[in-house]
């Protein structure tokens, strides 16, 4: 009985010492828009829920012309009364940032969110269809709850993809952090 009480008190003390609980990412929606169907179109863009605890994101954009991808705009928005800018809104020369990853750590963070589950893991040119395949929530949990701590809430990861100086596609990825 004494050992049980001692064990229970140790567990309670251990729980009291835990000051930080790991964040949980839950995918809520994804919207992909092609602004020029002669240039590109989305073959698929969806979230798939395998079971209660396993959800993943997949998208594939078919490129009809060899893109001269130069600029990508990444922004993070947090939901208050509507989605409002939160921390980051950057536009970068994607080819330069991929060639020299240390030159832009913010781009590196955003690109790291999907790079391992994508064929966009090399430098320019991109002369093939662009794919993000089965990006799971547990991978996002590791990325978002790593070095950068974000407050709980609903978020929108917005990206605009520019080729030849024209916005060709937009990907909006919605998720909750709890």
Task: Record the SSE blueprint.
Blueprint: H1 2-17, E1 25-34, E2 40-49, E3 55-63, E4 69-80, E5 82-93, H2 94-99, H3 105-112, E6 130-136, H4 137-144, E7 153-163, E8 166-177
Antiparallel strand pairs: 1-8, 2-3, 3-6, 4-5, 4-7, 7-8
Pfam families: DUF1091
Organism: Drosophila sechellia
InterPro entries: DUF1091 (IPR010512)
Short description:
The protein is an alpha+beta fold. The strands form two sheets. A five-stranded antiparallel β-sheet has the order 1-8-7-4-5.
Can you give a write-up of this model?
This protein has one domain (23-177): Distorted Sandwich (Ganglioside M2 Activator Protein, Chain: A), CATH 2.70.220. 21% of the residues lie in helices and 47% in strands. It has four helices and eight strands, in the order H-E-E-E-E-E-H-H-E-H-E-E. The strands form two sheets. A five-stranded antiparallel β-sheet has the order 1-8-7-4-5. A hairpin with a 1-residue loop joins strand 4 and strand 5 (82-93). The longest helix is centred in the N-terminal third of the chain and has 16 residues, at 2-17. The two termini are 38 Å apart.
